[in-house]
Amino acid sequence: MSLFKNIFSSKKKEHLDKGLEKSKTSFFSKLSKAVAGKSKVDDDVLDNLEEVLVTSDVGVDTTLKIIERIEARVAKDKYMGTDELNTILREEIAGLLSETNVGDATDINLPTGIKPYVIMVVGVNGVGKTTTIGKLAHQFKNKGYKVVLGAADTFRAAAIDQLQVWADRVGVPIVKQKMGSDPASVAFDTLSSAVSQNADVVIIDTAGRLHNKVNLMNELTKVKRVMQKVVDDTPHEVLLVLDGSTGQNAFEQAKQFTKATEVTALAVTKLDGTAKGGVVIGISDQFQIPVKYIGVGEGIEDLQVFNKFEFVDSFFNMKN
Fold it and tell me: What is the structure's pLDDT at 318?
């Protein structure tokens, strides 16, 4: 299929294949049981496939869309062998994601004409938010961009310390205040510093709390309002970080955060340590928000720009 091209470097593709290994092994084990003893795709196979997709954390709504697409192909082709099912799944899921998830990149880049480009990062504690920020900063710096970090998660001393460690590791400046400081004040100082340094990109960390959505909404709104006093129309991107290993809980977090603030992009982390990689397919389909990055390993290069075709190709290719 023409959609599936080697558009990643071989090293990146290798990391993606390895990162999805647990998910693929689990999925294909279930799929082989679903079609055991069957030579053609019939109602029983489709019922079993539905269960496989749901238990692989693709999500009920997205699973039903996939099953409907395959039913339509079976009806049109009259006969479909179970040996074709893997190829059909790859094609139909890629097609589904093409309709619902805009944009597809192969490398990390900033839009032209916006400087500094401001990214506000949100997500609950423990999802890999700080690590994602550090890896993003590293990749932007490697592209030649000047990066400034802002430690606006002031409710945990550990959050400030962790971001400082990443700033030191990557070799980029960080703006911080003491624990308990006003997050909006930190964001204001960060943008002011970035403008004075003629920085290209600013990445602002925010508090990872969901227990009170009203407070979270008010806080994020205030941070945005204060930042706009320095740079108009900021933030340019609100990146929600989700832990892929939590499966359906990642869906719930996405629902809660999209209610609390305007999320424009998603990052799904920790896919290498889980068999729940199917959650990326469901999240890509269900939210009208592009998955922009996926984490497929602990290495500093293992945060990848998400490309739906490469992801589906890796997920459904057991030859890797």
Answer: 61
